[in-house]
Amino acid sequence: MTAKTEWAAAIRWIQAEMADYGLTMEELAAAGGFDPPPPPPPPAPAPVVCYRNAAGQSWDGQGEMPDWLRRAVNAWQSVEFYRVG
To answer: b/e string for 31-40 if b means 16 or more Cβ within 10 A?
Structure first.
């Protein structure tokens, strides 16, 4: 089906449903059937992730990875090993 025929089929279905339920355009408008949808809720804040080594050095996960963590990763240590949050 093309987009035009799908559109026409959707219109016919809506008209048939309106007829089945005895609905008018005025009733649909009064019920808010043509109101724009509400805006989506704001995204949840990202969880704070912090990485810390035994010496107390930390990184919040933002920006460039610090040298102490980069050296650990280069030595095949998992970043998740240092994750505390």
So the answer is: eeeeeeeeee
Domain CATH for 61:
4.10.430.10
Q: Are residues 54 and 30 in the same domain?
A: no
User: pLDDT (tens digit, 9 = 90+) per residue, 55-77?
Assistant: 999 998 889 999 999 999 999 99
Q: Give the number of domains in the chain.
A: 2
| Model pLDDT for residues 1-15, shown as the tens digit of each residue | 699 999 999 999 999
Structural contact between residues 84 and 50, judged by C-beta atoms closer than 8 angstroms:
yes
Residue 4 belongs to domain spanning: 1-39
d(CA 16, CA 19): 5
Residues 6 or more apart whose CB falls under 8 angstroms from that of 65 comprise: 59, 73
- Assess whether 58 and 31 both reside in one domain: no
46 pLDDT higher than 80: no
